[in-house]
Amino acid sequence: MPSGYTSSNDTTRYAPYETHSYTVRAILVGWKSEADRDYHIVIADPNAPSNTMIIEPPDPTCTMACASNFGNYYSSVRAKFVACFGNPPGSFTNFPSGVVVDVTGVAFFDPLHGQTGVAPNGIELHPLLSVQWISGTSCSN
Amino acid sequence: MDIRYKLLKLTYRAKTTAILGLAALAASLIGCGGHSGSTTSTSVTQAPSDASAIVVTTPTLAKVQADVAASSLSALDKNRFAAFIDDHRQIPNAYENKTVREVINLQISYEVALRLAAQARADDTMHKAEIAKLIASKITLASEGDRSLVLHMDLQNLTAKQVKNLEIGLEFDDAKTGTRIGQAEVQLRRNIAPHGRIAFDYPMRYIRFSDDAGPMMASKGKAKKLDAQVTEIKYTDGTDAGFDD
Questions:
Q1: Is A139's Cβ below 8 Å from some Cβ in B?
Q2: What is the interface pTM, i.e. ipTM, of the complex?
Q3: B1 → closest Cβ in A8, A68, A120
């Protein structure tokens, strides 16, 4: 974890990782809509599919997400998921198998608290800013 | 979980790096010993074999399947390869131009997905049972208006500690079809004395349902099923129970 990150109420974005966006190629694993209305999406490494991490396009209408001025990115990426797979389920559900994507988002270290599919170090792409369908689906980009 | 959007607004400078493998991303970030840049994944999951490196194409699919069947790959991996091909006859781009190993990994990721979903269901069940020992909640839809609805909440603290805050997840489903209409989270700041009980009406504007606000308004007067779950409890002594997202 980044130095100094000790509390789940810590509101600091720690440079360099949490102030940069990253793009990864990944396999979609599963998803759900969380109570806070973020989409909780788990992806896997195509080269080591037991390695998973979380990506989250947040609710664009919640107060703080809107304040970031990236709400249109969140809306767009959520709409792409809904167009492809329907509304996210309330409980964690697997995606159809074999869907490969490129996803881009800002790194965020979430304290470990038993999240489904969390990376060993809690790293997430959160907020998720974009998704591109690569293969395994007929959904259009 | 407070995701720190406020400071993101101030400090975020988008700089997209080259495409990373997840393992590379994690490796570059764990321990802060790496760097964000054009790292590529170096993880290897299986010992290499000739069959693993064969590239699958639609015209050669039958031969590739025969080669895989006759190869030294494990029976498990052979079955994975066969299962994935069978499941994706209608979506050939799922395997087209991928190596046999990549196809096998796609099937493994699906196995991971099924395992995670089963574990999540078990965790949810356990979590609800744990919360039920701490607080008894009865939350019902009291009334619906044009712009808001009213929930009636009846909450009984089953512990010897004073409750300070509660987080409650709400989900309204269509009573006939079972499809979800709206979802929201309530963060309640109410003191509940040790073993105490409070009951009150809680008005909520439909806008609290975010992009489900429209469907919620449209469902006014229609039969709905409300699933309300206390997801997190914070006590005045600084302890908490449950989990947030």
A1: no
A2: 0.92
A3: A8
| B121 interfacial to chain A (CB closer than 8 Å) | yes
What is the Cα–Cα distance from B184 to A53, expressed in whole angstroms?
A: 25
pLDDT band of B59, cuts 50, 70, 90: very high
The DSSP secondary structure of B180-244, one letter per residue, reads: EEEEEEEEEEEEE-TT-EEEEEEEEEGGGGGGGHHHHHHTTTS-EEEEEEEEEEEETTS-EEE--
Helix (H, G, I), strand (E, B) or coil at B156: strand
Q: Please tell me if residue A4 touches chain B, with a CB cutoff of 8 Å.
A: no
Task: Tell me whether residue A7 is exposed, middle or buried, using C-beta atoms within 10 angstroms of its C-beta: 0 to 12, 13 to 18, 19 or more.
Answer: exposed
Q: Assign 3-class secondary structure to B7-30.
A: HHHHHCCCCCCCEECHHHHHHHHH
Record: contact A94-B117, CB cut-off 8 A = yes
Task: Give A80's contacts (C-beta < 8 A, 6+ positions apart).
Answer: A131, A139, A141
**To probe the interface with A, which of B15, B29, B58, B207 has the most A CB atoms within 10 Å?**
B29
Sequence-separated contacts (24+) of B135-142 with Cβ below 8 Å: B135/B159, B135/B163, B135/B166, B135/B192, B135/B230, B135/B233, B137/B168, B137/B228, B137/B230, B139/B168, B139/B170, B139/B226, B139/B228, B140/B226, B141/B172, B141/B224, B141/B226, B142/B201
Query: In this complex, is the C-beta atom of B123 within 8 Å of any C-beta atom belonging to chain A?
Result: yes
Q: How far is A52 from chain B (nearest CA, A)?
A: 8
pLDDT at A9: 65
**Which DSSP string do the residues of A74-128 spell out, in sequence order?**
HHHHHHHHHHHH-SPPSS-EEPPTT-EEEEEEEEEEPPPS--TT--TT-EEEEEE
3-state DSSP assignment of residue B136: strand
CA–CA separation, B106 and B84 (whole Å)? 8
DSSP state of A1: -
For residue range B94-111, what is the model confidence (pLDDT) as tens digits? 999 999 999 999 999 999
**What SS3 state is found at B96?**
coil
Q: Is B36 on the interface with A (CB under 8 A)?
A: yes
Q: Is A140 on the interface with B (CB under 8 A)?
A: no
